[in-house]
Design brief:
The protein has helices spanning 2-12, 35-45, 62-71, 99-111, 116-132; strands at 23-27, 55-59, 81-84, 89-93, 134-135, 138-139. With 140 residues, the protein is α/β, with parallel strands linked by helices. The chain starts with a helix and ends with a strand.
Length: 140
Protein backbone atom coordinates (compact mmCIF):
# COMPACT_ATOMS: atom_id res chain seq x y z
CA UNK A 1 0.00 0.00 0.00
CA UNK A 2 2.82 2.38 0.92
CA UNK A 3 4.47 1.76 -2.46
CA UNK A 4 1.18 2.35 -4.27
CA UNK A 5 0.66 5.68 -2.51
CA UNK A 6 4.24 6.70 -3.21
CA UNK A 7 3.84 5.64 -6.86
CA UNK A 8 0.74 7.77 -7.20
CA UNK A 9 2.55 10.70 -5.58
CA UNK A 10 5.51 10.42 -7.93
CA UNK A 11 3.39 9.94 -11.03
CA UNK A 12 1.01 12.77 -10.17
CA UNK A 13 3.72 15.18 -9.06
CA UNK A 14 3.91 18.27 -11.15
CA UNK A 15 7.40 18.00 -12.52
CA UNK A 16 9.18 18.95 -15.69
CA UNK A 17 12.39 18.09 -17.50
CA UNK A 18 15.71 19.86 -17.09
CA UNK A 19 14.93 22.08 -20.08
CA UNK A 20 12.27 23.83 -17.99
CA UNK A 21 13.17 26.42 -15.36
CA UNK A 22 15.58 24.16 -13.54
CA UNK A 23 19.23 24.58 -14.32
CA UNK A 24 22.51 22.76 -14.14
CA UNK A 25 25.61 24.60 -12.98
CA UNK A 26 29.23 23.47 -13.02
CA UNK A 27 31.50 23.90 -10.01
CA UNK A 28 35.25 23.62 -10.47
CA UNK A 29 35.24 23.29 -14.23
CA UNK A 30 34.06 24.58 -17.56
CA UNK A 31 31.69 23.11 -20.11
CA UNK A 32 34.75 21.91 -22.03
CA UNK A 33 36.74 20.25 -19.26
CA UNK A 34 33.75 18.93 -17.30
CA UNK A 35 31.93 17.18 -20.18
CA UNK A 36 32.60 13.68 -18.89
CA UNK A 37 31.01 14.58 -15.53
CA UNK A 38 28.23 16.83 -16.85
CA UNK A 39 26.77 14.85 -19.76
CA UNK A 40 25.71 11.68 -17.88
CA UNK A 41 24.04 13.79 -15.20
CA UNK A 42 22.18 15.92 -17.74
CA UNK A 43 21.10 12.85 -19.70
CA UNK A 44 19.82 11.16 -16.56
CA UNK A 45 17.95 14.22 -15.32
CA UNK A 46 16.31 14.55 -18.72
CA UNK A 47 14.68 11.15 -18.15
CA UNK A 48 13.34 11.83 -14.65
CA UNK A 49 10.65 14.18 -13.32
CA UNK A 50 12.14 17.25 -11.70
CA UNK A 51 10.66 20.41 -10.20
CA UNK A 52 10.88 23.52 -12.32
CA UNK A 53 12.56 25.63 -9.64
CA UNK A 54 15.62 23.55 -8.82
CA UNK A 55 19.34 24.04 -9.33
CA UNK A 56 21.57 21.04 -9.92
CA UNK A 57 25.29 21.55 -9.38
CA UNK A 58 27.81 19.22 -10.99
CA UNK A 59 31.08 19.23 -9.06
CA UNK A 60 33.74 18.60 -11.65
CA UNK A 61 36.65 17.22 -9.64
CA UNK A 62 37.30 15.21 -6.48
CA UNK A 63 39.37 18.06 -5.01
CA UNK A 64 36.54 20.57 -5.46
CA UNK A 65 34.09 18.00 -4.03
CA UNK A 66 36.21 17.58 -0.89
CA UNK A 67 36.56 21.36 -0.52
CA UNK A 68 32.80 21.78 -0.83
CA UNK A 69 32.17 19.12 1.81
CA UNK A 70 34.67 20.79 4.16
CA UNK A 71 32.80 24.10 3.83
CA UNK A 72 29.50 22.50 4.82
CA UNK A 73 30.95 20.15 7.44
CA UNK A 74 30.05 17.18 5.26
CA UNK A 75 33.43 15.54 4.80
CA UNK A 76 33.03 11.79 5.18
CA UNK A 77 29.21 11.97 5.11
CA UNK A 78 28.71 11.45 1.37
CA UNK A 79 30.81 10.70 -1.66
CA UNK A 80 28.05 10.91 -4.27
CA UNK A 81 25.56 13.76 -3.80
CA UNK A 82 23.54 15.83 -1.36
CA UNK A 83 20.47 18.03 -1.48
CA UNK A 84 19.71 21.29 0.29
CA UNK A 85 15.90 21.36 0.38
CA UNK A 86 15.66 24.95 1.63
CA UNK A 87 17.99 26.39 -1.01
CA UNK A 88 16.55 24.17 -3.80
CA UNK A 89 20.00 22.87 -4.73
CA UNK A 90 21.29 19.38 -5.37
CA UNK A 91 25.04 18.79 -5.66
CA UNK A 92 26.43 15.83 -7.59
CA UNK A 93 29.98 14.52 -7.33
CA UNK A 94 30.58 14.30 -11.08
CA UNK A 95 33.35 11.74 -10.66
CA UNK A 96 31.08 9.37 -8.70
CA UNK A 97 27.71 9.49 -10.43
CA UNK A 98 25.05 6.91 -11.31
CA UNK A 99 21.38 7.23 -12.24
CA UNK A 100 20.49 5.68 -8.88
CA UNK A 101 22.19 8.63 -7.16
CA UNK A 102 20.11 11.12 -9.16
CA UNK A 103 16.92 9.19 -8.43
CA UNK A 104 17.72 9.07 -4.70
CA UNK A 105 18.33 12.82 -4.57
CA UNK A 106 15.13 13.46 -6.52
CA UNK A 107 13.40 11.29 -3.92
CA UNK A 108 14.49 13.83 -1.31
CA UNK A 109 13.30 16.69 -3.51
CA UNK A 110 9.92 15.31 -4.60
CA UNK A 111 9.03 13.95 -1.15
CA UNK A 112 10.54 17.04 0.55
CA UNK A 113 12.25 14.79 3.08
CA UNK A 114 15.65 14.38 4.66
CA UNK A 115 14.86 10.73 5.42
CA UNK A 116 17.18 8.57 3.32
CA UNK A 117 14.94 5.49 3.37
CA UNK A 118 11.98 7.48 2.04
CA UNK A 119 14.21 9.11 -0.59
CA UNK A 120 15.61 5.74 -1.65
CA UNK A 121 12.11 4.25 -1.98
CA UNK A 122 10.93 7.22 -4.04
CA UNK A 123 14.05 7.06 -6.19
CA UNK A 124 13.52 3.37 -6.86
CA UNK A 125 9.98 4.07 -8.06
CA UNK A 126 11.23 6.91 -10.28
CA UNK A 127 13.72 4.57 -11.95
CA UNK A 128 11.10 1.84 -12.35
CA UNK A 129 8.66 4.28 -13.90
CA UNK A 130 11.37 5.64 -16.21
CA UNK A 131 12.50 2.18 -17.26
CA UNK A 132 8.91 1.05 -17.91
CA UNK A 133 8.30 4.05 -20.14
CA UNK A 134 11.46 3.95 -22.25
CA UNK A 135 12.85 1.78 -24.97
CA UNK A 136 16.60 1.92 -25.42
CA UNK A 137 16.82 4.94 -23.10
CA UNK A 138 14.27 6.95 -25.14
CA UNK A 139 10.65 7.68 -24.17
CA UNK A 140 8.10 5.31 -25.67
Amino acid sequence: MRTLILSAFVILSVAQTVEAKSRILLLGGTAENCKAEFLPIRQTLNTLPIPDDWTFVVVCSPVVWDNLLRRIDGLGKTNTAFTNLKAHHTYFNGSNFSPRVAAHELGHVLRQTTDHEKAEAAGFILLQHRDNNTVGGRPR
